Amino acid sequence: MGILRCCAALMIVGLFFGTAFADVKELAKIDGFVISDTDFKKRIMLTPERQRARFTNKDKENLLNKMIDEELLLREAQKLNLYDNEDYKFKVETYKRELLVNLYLEQFLNENNTEENQKKYYEENKEKYANKETVRISVISVGSEDEAKEILKKAQAGEDFAELVKKHSKGPFVNRGGDFGYRTRTSLKKEIADAAFSMKEGEIGGPVKTEDGGYHIIKLVDHKEAGPPPFEEEKNKVAIDYGRKLLSDKISGLRKAVKIQTDSKVLEDLKTD
Q1: Neighbours of 153 (CB within 10 A)
Q2: Residues of 230-252 as b/e, b for ≥16 C-beta within 10 angstroms?
Q3: Do the beta carbons of residue 221 and residue 201 sit within 8 Å?
């Protein structure tokens, strides 16, 4: 299926032009059949943009060899007159439909999923992107209050907090300086949350005793209020969400404009193996 589909794609999009143009550069020749630089560039355009950006000379060599192999296999298929094979014809027609649909969707989204429209969509749906109030904290956890007080003095005197974590903490995330990352109030132990959410950024506080008997020194790294972030922070997600809405609305409108009848019984009885 893969080789056949690829060959069909080559014919559909016209990648093999032979020697029709005098100014083309010949990358390969197979018994007089030419694979030109134009053919090659068009073939590269079928690969994802990110992959194209990382194309090496070895990648180009591999692709050229693949095109040569496809031409040789295509000739074998021609010898068997597979162009007249009903399975082949069906697959070609199916691929042509898929290709046209994808080209239409690409054009539709390019025309409509603009940054201007995305910003408008974001403003209308800000609550969807709203963040909960969070704090980012680093914590040193020890077993006694006296030890915690000694460590607190060192931390407040300017000693490196991450180093103090490595030396003393019995809590989690020691290998990353005790950094808990961003946490909501409900994701922290109540005593730690109450302290952290009342602190100022950069403040080091404690010791905070928790129900399990532990004592904790807390450093508030950052505090984010609840609410929607700036558009730029959610730009990629908004582009995806708005694109999905555009497609959903488009298909919904097309379906409403026609009469569609389906037979669930026939569908249910249909064998798929």
Answers
A1: 11
A2: eeeebeeebbebbbeebeeeeee
A3: yes
Q: In which residue ranges of the chain is CATH 3.10.50.40 found?
A: 131-224
Written as tens digits, the pLDDT of the chain (273 aa) is 444 444 444 444 444 444 444 477 899 999 989 999 999 999 999 888 888 889 899 999 999 999 999 999 999 999 999 989 999 999 999 999 999 999 999 999 999 999 999 999 999 999 999 989 999 999 999 999 999 999 999 999 999 999 999 999 998 999 999 999 999 999 999 999 999 999 999 999 999 999 989 999 999 999 999 999 999 999 999 999 999 999 999 999 999 999 999 999 998 999 887
Contacts of residue 250, Cβ cutoff 8 Å, sequence gap at least 6: 108
Nearest residue to 30 via CA among 63, 93, 83, 75: 75
Both tokens assigned to 163: 């180093």
DSSP 3-state of 200: coil
CA distance 260 to 6: 33
CB 67 within 8 A of CB 35: yes
Q: Is 129 buried (19+), middle (13-18) or exposed (0-12) by CB count in 10 A?
A: middle
Spell out the CATH class of 131-224: alpha beta
Here the tokens at position 194 are 């109450």
Among the listed residues 239, 238, 53, the one whose alpha carbon sits nearest the alpha carbon of residue 129: 238
Angstrom distance (rounded) from CA 77 to CA 71: 10
Predicted structure pTM score: 0.59
Count, in order, helices (H) and strands (E) of the chain: 12, 6
Q: Which of 56, 54, 20 is nearest to 38 (CA)?
A: 20
